[in-house]
Known about the structure:
This is leucine--tRNA ligase. It is a single chain. By secondary structure, the protein is of the alpha+beta class. The protein is built from eight helices and twelve strands. It has helices at residues 15-18, 22-26, 72-79, 98-101, 141-152, 181-188, 197-214, 227-240, and strands spanning 2-12, 30-37, 48-51, 56-61, 66-70, 92-97, 105-107, 115-120, 132-135, 172-173, 216-217, 244-248. Strands 1, 2, 3, 4, 5, 6, 7, 8, 9 and 12 form a ten-stranded mixed beta sheet that branches. Strands 10-11 form a two-stranded antiparallel sheet. A hairpin with a 7-residue loop joins strand 7 (105-107) and strand 8 (115-120). The longest helix is centred in the C-terminal third of the chain and has 18 residues, at 197-214. The protein starts with a strand and ends in an 11-residue tail after the last strand. Ligand ZZB is lined by residues 36-39, 42, 123-125, 128-129, 131, 133-134, 136, 139-140, 204, 207-208.
Amino acid sequence: QEYTGLKMEVTQWSEAAKSSDIQSKLAGRKAFLVAATLRPETMYGQTNCFVGPELKYGVFAVNEKEAFVCTLRAARNMAFQGTFDVQGQVNQLFEFSGKDLVGTKIKAPLSINPEVYVLPMESVLATKGTGVVTSVPSDSPDDFATLTDLKKKPEYYKIDPSWCALDPVPVISTPTYGEMIAPALVKQLKIQSAKDAKQLAEAKEVAYKEGFYNGTMSIGEFKGESVQDAKPKVRESMIKGGVAFPYAEPEGLVISRSG
Ligand code: ZZB
């Protein structure tokens, strides 16, 4: 899978992170949460970022100036893709549990919301991407459903309601679903919560296909262009601008026993 790694710079750590050793371990480096996305063209509509509250996240030195926050698994992959100064080596400076990252404020490159908060999402997989997921509730049914749950019960999820207060942003328009495909699909498929995994998988499939084949950009540098045309252009523009980098992972490697 060829993802885009999005660099979301930490501008204010959560209370839990603030009271940890993180500042001294960073030794002056800037920290970035790195989100892995397959939809670079939707980055205009980021409203927050998600981590798995029960997952472990490392803080890895990129060089003397920067550090990335992601799973160890992702850092090991990056180490072989020229992401870090020292090829093939991972230098972990610190470790967080996902729940300690919740409430951290980060920059969201390209988004009309320049800064967003880190929120918890139970369904983040440790085995995919970086374990950090940037959230686009206009175009991702999972993100919209999770945010709806968080807004209903902020105390239960131990979050401040202001952290999930940003509304979905129109990014892509499709003839069938208009400008808010994710909320439309959540309604149409009667999805009640982020726990409705089966319907959410179906909604995701429809949203991917509709967005890619029939979507037109409603915002940004490539407004009016088809999603198919805009997608690689937005990606290149972010990579050139130094806010993103290519991140690949070996997908479902099957080791044959018979050789
Ligand atoms: C922003 C975005 C905007 C995404 C959208 C999707 C959509 P897939 O298709 O199953 O391979 N993601 C990335 N890593 C994880 C993880 N570890 N656990 C759970 N979700 C993860 O999934 C790739 C997408 O799933 C990624 O692209 C990321 O969310 C999320 F409008 O980034 B995406 C219809 C989907 N729309």
